Amino acid sequence: MQAEDNPWQPDFSDLDPARLRVGDALPVLRIPITHKLIVGGALATQDFIPVHHNLPAAQAAGMVDIFMNILTTSGLSARYLSDWAGANSRLQALKFNLLAPNFPGDVMLMAGAVTAIEPGPTHATVQVAFSGRNRLGYHTTGDATLALPTMATT
Predict the structure, then answer these.
(1) Helix/strand/coil for 87
(2) Three-state DSSP class for 37?
(3) Residue pLDDT, tens place only, 91-139
């Protein structure tokens, strides 16, 4: 799927789980990867390992530049999923693999699809497979479980 096929335009309203179907694609989110994002993410997560903020240290480790830490990837993944599902959704589980690094100048395209839906009286449990790709390939792939409130019928 191309990013243009399904652009990210969240309105931040809650999704009605009754309208979801297995196989539904999540919109694609384009995240520019910048030095500020990488360093800010490392600082915010108290990850002071030099490869996330110091170019000579990253190059000494065989990298071309500083690169994103796993906690920033986790936060961006959670943001992508919760923005899609709405403010009253709850991220119950997040599992992911960290693959190709995100470097400054990359653009990560987050995408996903609904893989399972379990209705309930107050909320539906929704499983989502998601990924983030950059110019090197997949930066992350994973699965998440979200609780989406059941919408009242009028």
Answers:
(1) coil
(2) helix
(3) 999 999 999 999 999 999 999 999 999 999 999 999 999 999 999 999 9
| Six token digits for residue 42 | 């490392």
Exposure on the CB side of residue 54, measured as CA atoms within 13 A = 9
DSSP 135: T
Evaluate if residue 154 carries a pLDDT over 60: no
Domains of the chain: 15-149 (3.10.129.10)
State the maximum Cα–Cα separation within the chain, in Å, rounded to a whole number. Answer: 62
* Cα 50 off chain centre by: 24
Rounded distance, CA 130 to CA 26, Å? 9
- pLDDT tens readout for residues 18-35: 999 999 999 999 999 999
141, 26, 147: which is closest to 91 by C-alpha?
147
Torsion angles phi and psi, residue 113, rounded to 5: -155, 145
For helices 35-44 and 70-85, angle between their N-to-C axes, nearest 10 degrees: 100
